[in-house]
Amino acid sequence: MTKQRQAVMQVHQMNVTEFEAAFQDEDDCKSYLANNRWPNGVCCPRCDNTEITEHGTKDWHWMCYACNQDGYRFSVTVGTIFENTNKPLREWFRVMHLILTSKKGISSLQVMRYMGFGSYNTALKMCNKIRVALSGADFRQLVGVVECDETFVGGKAKNKHGGNDKGGTGSGKGGSNKKEVVIACVERKGNVVARVIENLSKATVDAMALP
Ligand SMILES: [Zn+2]
Question: HSE-up of 203 (CA within 13 Å, CB side)?
Fold first, then answer.
């Protein structure tokens, strides 16, 4: 446990100031999303074709002619919980940051008040979507979440991931290492706020946090 705590210290959790700096507008959020989603360059979410072209008039939209001869148009948010939302990405990111940085979890009511949302239902829906999405590895990767000590996603992890017996924790002293916990962190220069750490060894964390 001592080892683990030590390791966690090295992961940098994004604070409010850093969040503000990293995500100043919608473009910042979309760029972040695109870079995490397609680290090797944009490809078609339908057919994985990498020979896509920029849409031209719509930013953060591309065309694929491999899976549709008339062209399949897709955006950076297609297939994510952010697709077809009427809330700015920045607000989604902010709510995620709130959830990820609140140690004891945050209620939808608190989110509503903090964000100044007009309706509780909006906050509730958003929080639920985020919490459900965060339980999937793909989404965690998409938004760059590092699994670490201390911060839980939506309550006690042992209740959510009881069946998880992913091996190789190395330091394995039984159940305590199996809790799935999440922390947001940021790379100094990059657009990557965090990544998923499968195996929380000190070496892994060091490699992640100290570029
Ligand atoms: Zn395609």
Answer: 4
